[in-house]
Design brief:
Elements lengths: L22 H18 L3 H6 L8 H6 L17 H14 L1 H21 L2 H12 L5 E4 L9 H4 L3 E5 L2 E11 L7 E8 L5 E7 L5 E5 L12 E11 L10 H36 L1 E2 L2 E2 L4 H30 L4 H25 L11 H13 L4 H13 L6
Parallel strand pairs: 1-4, 2-4
Antiparallel strand pairs: 2-3, 3-7, 4-5, 6-7, 8-9
Pfam family, one: Acyl-CoA_dh_N
Keywords: FAD, Flavoprotein, Oxidoreductase
Cofactor: FAD
Length: about 400
């Protein structure tokens, strides 16, 4: 695609992957970039420092019309996975916390309802989630169950007539302190299968308490959820979620999305380092003139380029409907490992000033740790890839 000469390609996209977008897709990216520059970039550091979510950005974000883009609606066909990937990258480039908020709502929560909900449930919940009148959360991880939650889920669901009674706890649930709808995964005591439920805000027996003293993705409002005799109607049980295999279908797609957020976070660190290298004077010249600084920037760009190439291929495989678990695992594992290196090099370019929030580098440095761990630790994703290589499972 030929882009307007007055609109530069994304800094850090050395191989021009952004040019794979068509004109309409590029317009959406450009509008999103303008929204981020106006509404998110000026407040990102303060929100991070005070662990405060900026609810005021939700209405203008909703006006962009980018929630649930991969879902078919009567008046809006699904967009390409490539577009949603670039949007996730754009948001993370400015603020990984806002990218996580949006990914939980648009990807995990809306994606679960789109994949596992009945036609009636989709019609009931997806339109107001698309307009962001209702915000979603996704409750899978438990206080004692992270990597082993598939086989060790302790949250239970018992059917009594047309009501399900949920008991248990969830941890690290983004958006849960203010979400209108929270997807809860629980093990059916009757058949021992994992099923999905949509719990509406205000349901008795459901409480969400913000996790304090968190030093990565501080703007994200992660919560500890407690479910005590929480009664959910059968109408809120996701009708196409019958086992953990259905949960895994959701995770396969969103895990690929983490790769895009990892690229965006690398780009944010890279932007901060390049700006600083051009402005910071030492020995009578900008530090960008020095060989060792240039080497750090080149290594950052190498990691970004490799990760972005993998993320683009992820989107293409998703679009073709042939995306596999090991591909999702490798993309998430590799891109977040490179992310850790990239943000460290970016902080190094800034020297002592790199630990000050005003320069952005430290925010990206800290946020990288959460991306490295969520949606599957490096070790678990490595074992998924290893299983595909050898045909042997090394899980305990």
């Amino acid at each position: 695609m030929a882009l307007d000469d007055e609109i530069p390609l994304l800094p850090g996209d050395l191989f021009g992957y952004e040019s794979l977008l068509d004109a309409d897709e590029w317009s959406v990216v450009r509008r999103t970039r303008a929204f981020l520059d106006e509404h998110v970039a000026p407040i990102a550091a303060d929100c991070w420092e005070y662990a405060r979510f900026p609810h005021q950005i939700v209405p203008p974000l909703a006006e962009l019309g980018i929630a649930g883009l991969t879902i078919d609606f009567e008046d809006r066909p699904a967009s390409r996975q490539l577009l949603t990937g670039f949007l996730a990258m754009e948001i993370a480039r400015v603020d990984p916390s806002i990218a996580t908020f949006f990914g939980v709502h648009s990807g995990l929560a809306m994606g679960t309802i789109a994949l596992c909900g009945s036609d009636e449930q989709q019609q009931r919940w997806l339109p107001p989630m698309r307009s962001m009148e209702l915000i979603g959360a996704f409750g899978l991880t438990e206080p004692e169950g992270g990597s082993d939650v598939a086989g060790g889920m302790r949250t239970t669901a018992e059917r009594i007539g047309d009501t399900w009674v949920l008991q248990g706890a969830k941890r690290w649930i983004g958006n849960a302190t203010f979400a209108d709808l929270t997807v809860i995964w629980a093990r059916d005591v009757a058949d021992d299968q994992v099923k999905g439920f949509v719990v509406e805000a205000g349901t008795p027996g459901f409480t969400a308490e913000r996790i304090e003293r968190k030093y990565s993705l501080r703007t994200v409002q992660n919560a500890d959820i407690t479910l005590t005799d929480c009664r959910v109607p059968e109408a809120n049980r996701l009708q196409r979620a019958e086992s953990f295999k259905d949960t895994a279908r959701v995770l396969r797609f969103t895990r690929g999305g983490v790769a895009w957020s990892a690229v965006g976070t690398q780009l944010g660190a890279y932007d901060a380092a390049v700006r600083y290298a051009a402005e910071r004077q030492q020995f009578g010249r900008p530090i960008g003139h020095f060989q060792l600084v240039q080497e750090l920037l080149a290594k950052m760009l190498g990691n970004i380029t490799a990760s972005l190439g993998m993320a683009v291929r992820v989107a293409q495989l998703q679009q073709d409907g042939v995306f596999r678990d090991e591909q999702a695992a490798l993309a998430k594992w590799y891109s977040t490992a490179r992310l850790r290196e990239t943000v460290a090099w970016g902080r190094e370019v800034l020297g002592g000033n790199g630990i000050v929030l005003d320069n952005d580098a430290m925010r990206f440095f800290a946020d990288a740790e959460a991306l490295y761990s969520y949606e599957g630790t490096a070790q678990m994703n490595a074992l998924i890839v290893g299983r595909s290589i050898t045909g042997k499972s090394a899980f305990v």
